[in-house]
Amino acid sequence: MGEDQAETAVSTKPLNPRDLRVSDAEREHVVAVLEKAIGRGLIDLDEFTERTDTALAARTRGELNVVLADLPGLVHRDAVVPGTPPAAANFAGERLELKAHGSNLVRKGRWSVPGNLSVLNKYGNTTLDFTQAAVASPVVNIELSTKWGSVELIIPEQAAVDVNSVTEVKWGALNDRTNTNGHAGTPRYVVSGRVHGGSLTIRHPKRGLFG
């Protein structure tokens, strides 16, 4: 009886997401992300070669994603950088509430982004720039509740959005200039909620003199 219970305990023990096996397609996707990183000057050629070798040899999600862990906007919740405090690793599951009334709400540069964001803004514009943000999760849920003000989301080139859960854009428009809605990308920004009396615009960072 005791042996049967022991076998059951082993078979039902949850598997750590870091230990999940990865496919060739996942390895190739990470290499493509590294190519974009070298194009943006985030890593040099030697680092690219070293990280690519690591990615192609990776067997698990933890081994694969560690090559992206220190790149802005590419931190994976299952790829914790050695020495990262447990509190930072748990930040992925937390919720950040951003509130404003009668004023503009802006987040840009290096700021910490958990797995869930709630944005409440009345009579003011909202700009969330994720280009250099430290993102704690591969999926970021953004719930919008804004009135009489536009919303602009700026996401990295390798990221993607999902706006299928936006229930209402009233007296305005939804403009996804990235053309990534529903596509693969890391991180993936899932937007929901309502924008009343203003537009919702999603774009990549501007490049060059004329953007």
Could you say which overall geometry the principal axes of the C-alpha atoms support? elongated
Low-confidence stretches: 1-12, 75-90
Assembly status: single chain
Listing every helix as H and every strand as E from the N terminus to the C terminus, the arrangement reads HHHHHEEEEEEEEEEEE
* Average pLDDT metric: 80
Q: Biggest β-sheet: count, sense, barrel?
A: 5 strands, parallel
List keywords for this structure.
211 residues, alpha/beta, five-stranded parallel β-sheet, 12 strands, 24% helix, 31% strand, disordered N terminus
Describe what this molecule looks like in 3D.
With 211 residues, this protein is of the alpha/beta class. The chain has helices spanning 2-12, 24-39, 45-57, 61-65, 86-90; strands at 95-101, 105-107, 112-113, 116-122, 126-129, 134-135, 139-147, 151-154, 160-170, 174-176, 188-196, 200-203. It has a five-stranded parallel beta sheet, with no helix packed on it.
